[in-house]
Amino acid sequence: MRVLTRSQSETVQASPRSPLAVAPAATVPGVSILRPLKGLDTNLYENLESTFTQEYPKYELLLSVAGENDQALPVARELISKYPNVNCRIIIGEEVVGVNPKVNNLIRSYREAAHDILWVIDSNVTVHSGTLARSVDALVGPPSPVPGKRRIALVHHVPFAVVTESKIGSRLEEAFLNTNHAKMYIAINAVAVDSCVMGKSNLYRRSDLERVNGSLKPLDLSNQTATQPGPCGLPAFGRFLAEDNMIAGALWHELGERHDLSCDIARNVVGNMTLSDYVWRRARWIRVRKHMVLAATLLEPFTESVVLSIICATSLRYLFGVPPWISICAHFALWIYVDLDVYASLAGHPLPAATRWQFAAAWAARELLALPIFLLAIFGSEVVWRGRAYRVLRNGEVARAEKSRSWFQRFRQPKNYDPIDTEM
């Protein structure tokens, strides 16, 4: 695992500037950057500014909001004034194509984008100024591709949590994203047996997306213009909660293409998150994954340290008579060593001494909570997302949950609860 994480992330620190960064605009592919906004995310100004300062000669930036009174608009307008040479527009107004509000918010930007290559990046993410150029390099590939090798249809970035708050949920999210999640995310993408993509920051071609619909049924690859029947493109993915993963899966399975995990990272700025927020966030995505990849979801506990420590200790005692306390201590020492190495690899530096004990406590709590959260999530199909209750259906599609049957919503909602969207 050390080889996987080091080779991926040290490239970020040592990556040379892409030739595309200084190439004439007429010689590089154009890119449309789509950023859906809703409200004042933590670090919103710096997050958005990171896309205004990309070292790439030919791109446009489309900032989309659902309503004219959105709190993100003043921030967006201030940045447009600060960077008048950047081709940026604000798109106000959503188009409802499904239950996913992020997709609804993006539809108009998707239709109005001037370029075929789209970079969809969440509003709580900040990126390095060279990210776009290196990502286009990866998406376009070498001038002479290897015969028989599948074309790259999507480039994505490892999420890396940046925490500015001291809430326990925020610390747990940091420990999860920067160790367990990053470790498995990089490993699965290195093996590349199937699509595994988180939609914090993704590049793909609109022309590819216009051929697929999320059915995951392979197209006739002998016909390079074949498309799936019925609605295709981004509107077809409004019925999914995890539209990012389904888009990636559609490009992989329906077009027979592959993904590339860029050397850059997507710095995910985590705001105030309570323990309850963390637990139900993890439970929500376990319930979604259960309906998308059941077998892989059921195996998840066996990738966690606590379950594996029990299996390891039992096996070593039975086979070699090793006392359980020795194997358990050795197991967790090795486990946290690997996790800290993953953290250091992605961050480019070891864990800061000032936060070492806070992180260690959050890491231990995360490891202990993993199995209880899994058991809580696996026996339900209802989730609360952006202030609304949904039932997860087959293949990750969702439907609004009726109030009369929504025990989960009643359990989650506080007094005087107003079911409105609260986050993007």
TrEMBL record:
Top-level taxonomic group: Eukaryota
GO molecular function, one term: ceramide glucosyltransferase activity
InterPro entries in UniProt: Ceramide_glucosylTrfase, Nucleotide-diphossugar_trans
Entry GO CC: membrane
Keyword field contains Membrane: yes
Annotated localization: Membrane
Enzyme Commission no: 2.4.1.80
SUPFAM superfamilies for this protein: Nucleotide-diphospho-sugar transferases (SSF53448)
Pfam short name (any one): Glyco_transf_21
Gene3D superfamilies: Spore Coat Polysaccharide Biosynthesis Protein SpsA, Chain A (3.90.550.10)
Chief location of this protein within or outside the cell: membrane
Keywords, ordered alphabetically: Glycosyltransferase, Membrane, Transferase, Transmembrane, Transmembrane helix
PANTHER family: CERAMIDE GLUCOSYLTRANSFERASE
Protein name: Ceramide glucosyltransferase
Species whose genome carries this gene: Mycena alexandri
